Amino acid sequence: MAEEKSPIELVIISGMSGAGKTVAVQSFEDLGYFCIDNMPPALIPKFWELLDQSGKVKKVALVVDLRSRAFYDQIVDILNELENSESVNAHILFLDATDTELVSRYKETRRAHPLAMEGRLMDGIRKERELLRPLRNHAEVIIDTTNLSPRELREELFASFQNKRQPLFHLEVMSFGFKYGLPLDADIVMDVRFLPNPYYIPELKHQTGLDKAVYDYVMDNPQAENFYKQFDAMLHDIMPMYVEEGKTSLTIAIGCTGGQHRSVAFARRIGASFEGEYPVDVSHRDVNRRKETVNRS
């Protein structure tokens, strides 16, 4: 018996120009949606047919607004077709704000309204509001962003559309060697070069922090244990604050000289400390650098 396909989750993002659609589409990307900005409504059925045939994309967010106004009168009919399809769970998100706030935002960014390129800003806003009225009436979720900061809008979107079974926030813990440069994507960098270096122990020199002998040598040191407890406690204290601020991932980079002994051992232990609390990925950027150098020489 053929396995029944689960319907694709579709969110149509629309609303007033300047009401926060850019923040919205970035938020949906963080939520794992395949996102397309400025999708002409006339192309949605063909696009959906291709997605349905591929079976690889399960969550899609499309921004549909008056930049594609030549096709806009088709949108309600197309959405009705999608909503009646068994292969789609369609939702319409409409972002709005007061006229006063929209004017303020346009003045601040110095951008031209798409319906008032050569006329008065308020005329463009009023015309857009009238054109979007049918879509707003059709919307399942309406968010007034007048008094919302970008972070607060993200929080509202996460609360409405996040799959609660899939934690959004995750940790990246990596080791690296300072001699090869700082990781460009690190949020927190910690230096463990103050600890005794296994490189100078002949039997450990050609091993790494992935080997038990090196790991035990690093972590059995009283200085290492004391530092680990303080660093780990600090990370556990501040991690919920990153989550509250809307961070979707955090990269903790731990460095030693060559990125093969001390930093590797510490990254392993820090990563293990957070298992069960957040999704954690532990990587070791430079652990094989010396081997590569030897092979090239």
From TrEMBL:
GTP binds at residues 65-68. This is RNase adapter RapZ. Keywords: ATP-binding, GTP-binding, Nucleotide-binding. Residues 170-287 form the RapZ C-terminal domain. Residues 8-164 form the RapZ-like N-terminal domain. SUPFAM superfamilies: P-loop containing nucleoside triphosphate hydrolases. ATP binds at residues 15-22. It comes from the Bacteria.
